[in-house]
Amino acid sequence: MALKCGIVGLPNVGKSTLFNCLSSAKAQSANFPFCTIDPNLGVITVADERLNELAILVHPKQIVPTTVEIVDIAGLVRGASKGEGLGNKFLGNIRETDAIIHVLRCFDNDNIVHVDNKIDPVQDKETVDIELQLKDLENVETRIKKIERQAKTGDTEAKKLLKILTLYNEALSEGKSARTVSLNEDEEKIALQLQLLTNKPILYVCNVDEKSLKEDNKYVKAVKEAVKNEDAEVIVIAAGAEADIAELEDPEERKMFLEDIGLKESGVAKLTKSAYKLLYLETFFTAGPKEVRAWTYKKGSKAPQTAGVIHSDFEKGFIRAEVIKYNDFITLKSELACKEAGKINIEGKDYIVQDGDIMNFRFNV
Fold first, then answer.
1. Edge-to-edge strands of the sheet including 62-64?
2. What is the pLDDT of residues 274-329, one digit of tens each?
3. Distance between CA 223 and CA 62 in Å, rounded?
4. Rounded to 5 degrees, what are φ and ψ at 39?
5. At what angle do helices 239-246 and 15-22 cross, to 10 degrees?
6. Cβ contacts of 222-230, under 8 Å, gap ≥ 24
7. Which residues neighbour 188 within 8 Å (Cβ) at sequence distance 6 or greater?
8. In Å, how far from its chain's centre is CA 18?
9. Nearest-angstrom CA–CA distance, 268 and 235
10. CA-to-CA distance for 346 and 329, rounded, in angstroms?
11. What sections of the chain are H helices per DSSP?
């Protein structure tokens, strides 16, 4: 499932360092603006303890986790909507992603320059927001001019689109992002075709120094206050510490490192899970002697569409799905035991797959 999160922010906030911790791809990371010019694409593994628990019971030949694509995008500067810096290129790269991870610098370090020569993550956030909003406003105004004449002829679809565009135009003109506009389900489907930058789901990442991991510093507190009315999550990560953790190959050494800095889970693990949720993704499993595997599907998908994640033939020839709930499998410890206990449910085409379901699809092509 080719869904991507884009890492954005001002230059020198730690985007590329974080990207390198997250993925197998390696982006250049250096202490000067626009170190990243072309977007770097990487794949991150989504940590899921359920996969390991299933593997302990099934003893497969291999374990296959699920993944998410992530893009490290060049730093944005004031005036990007008018082409400043790498403006148009930057905004075009964001448009190609499905969700945004906005990295904010929340640490002091005189050795790492800031483009505005001061540390103010709330202002940094506003700089990015304004540039994205201005670009969206430009696009919306252009679309309104094109659709108005069509709507006046009585075209029903054009009228619907014009209404949505007008709502977006009002919000963006007031300095609000498109995602703040309330639409009904049908309107949201129409709005997707507009591909507005500020309509993408967003996650804020506060990049802090190591000592600020245990307790929010003043910068993190300011960010949380600034976004409290947004439908967005804020997570705190020390990208420098995560870079050190990433260099440790021994799981026990990583565990000890985390304990030393007072964490139960790495920031990278938290971020991958949050990115997964940000894209409205969930996981189902297949479990057998050859492999135990996690599969990604869009939340709310029905059984045939979910079967198509494995292979298109599974969806075309879908007959039924045999479903075991994860907790039942863990409790009873095998597929056979679940069958004997009547814990295998036979589901049809209208079944909405639930996160953690263990699936076996029957199909005929």
1. 62-64, 291-298, 281-287, 358-363, 318-324, 344-347
2. 988 999 999 999 999 999 999 999 999 999 999 999 999 999 999 999 999 999 99
3. 42
4. -65, 140
5. 30
6. 222/121, 222/122, 223/104, 223/106, 223/121, 223/122, 223/125, 226/122, 226/125, 227/125, 230/179, 230/180, 230/202
7. none
8. 14
9. 10
10. 15
11. 15-22, 49-58, 87-95, 121-152, 156-173, 185-191, 218-226, 239-246, 251-260, 267-278, 303-310, 312-316, 326-332, 335-340
Q: Angle 98-352-356 (CA atoms, 0-180°, nearest 5)? A: 75
- Give this prediction's pTM: 0.84
3-state secondary structure 139-173: HHHHHHHHHHHHHHCCCHHHHHHHHHHHHHHHHHH
The encoded tokens of residue 90 equal: 């930057």
Dist CA 126 CA 105 (whole Å): 13
Reported as a single tens digit per residue, the pLDDT across 198-253 is: 999 999 999 999 999 989 999 999 999 999 988 899 999 999 898 888 888 888 89
Segment holding 11, helix H or strand E: none
